[in-house]
Amino acid sequence: MAEAGFDFQKFIEDSKSVLTAPKEYFSSMPKTGGFVEPLIKATIYGLIAGVLYFIWGLLHLSAGAGMLGGMIGGGIGVMAIIGSIIGAIIGLFIGAIILLVVSAICGGSTDFEANVRVSASLMVLSPVSALLSFATGINLWLGGIVSLCVSLYGIYLLYHALINALQAKEGSAKVISIILAAFIAIVMLSSLTCYKAASTVSDKYRKDMEQLQQNSDEAIKSSEEALKNLNKMMEQMQKQAE
Which residue from 59, 29, 33 is spatially nearest to 167, judged by alpha carbons? Predict the structure, then answer.
């Protein structure tokens, strides 16, 4: 089937609708029309996300800011943006396969094209996540909470996509959504807790090393002072002997 040219204005309106009115959007979204449109969507979302991560890296407002800042001078920052686009395109089809499996479990559509188009629509969260990722550069826990909220909203969008676009059974979709939300929350909180524990151990090790260094410096100073006193005693004894 021949595909019409990509309508950028419609793309913007669809992106807004997915985020603000997912039930209405997924109820009326087209499930056919080819793969070009979802590919372009994924590419745009990947580009926007890559640029945002690039900007936060420049401003040192991301978890990898230090590394990114060092790479920008060599032009690798631009390559990171290209990598984000490639990752989005690959993620489009991987996400579609996962979505298809979930839809099948919930008794919904297993048409691959429909799942690809839904996957492309759900990728609107990619630039949103990138936009809010600066929170991690401010505080790890703040970034973790923001990331968790974005992920949970993604599950909410997935739920509406399953029952309204892919015609999945509402009860099954609800159970799957709750399981996924709980899993994501547990993983996120566990990761933050482990990081905090590792940071505590690291801080204690650093303090112990600083204390050890301080004790070593004091011991060296005491040894030097004792050596000076010994030299003075030797000089006095030598003078008395003369």
Answer: 29
Dihedral sign from CA coordinates of 159, 162, 167, 170: negative
- Rounded distance between C-alpha atoms, residue 35 and residue 120, angstroms: 10
Question: What number of residues does the chain have?
Answer: 242
| Residues contacting residue 178 through CB under 8 Å, at least 6 positions apart | none
Longest Cα–Cα distance in the chain:
114
- Name residues whose C-beta falls within 8 Å of residue 61's C-beta, 6 or more positions apart in sequence: 134, 137, 138
Nearest-angstrom CA–CA distance, 236 and 121: 91
d(CA 49, CA 131): 7
For 70-85, b/e burial (b = at least 16 CB within 10 A) is ebeeeeebeebbeebb
- Could you report the per-residue pLDDT of 84-119, keeping only the tens digit for each? 999 999 999 999 999 999 999 999 999 999 999 999
Q: Which amino acid is at 54?
A: F
**Domain regions of the chain by residue span:** 8-170
Give dist(CA 242, CA 237) in Å, integer. 9
Two tokens at 55? 């900007």
How many CB atoms within 10 Å of residue 23?
A: 14
Give tens-digit pLDDT for 156-169.
999 999 999 999 99
Neighbours of 185 (CB within 10 A): 14
Q: What is the pTM of this model?
A: 0.74
> Given the structure tokens 């505590």, which residue do they identify?
200
Q: Are 37 and 117 in contact (CB under 8 A)?
A: yes
Q: State residue 62 phi and psi, 5-degree precision.
A: -145, 160
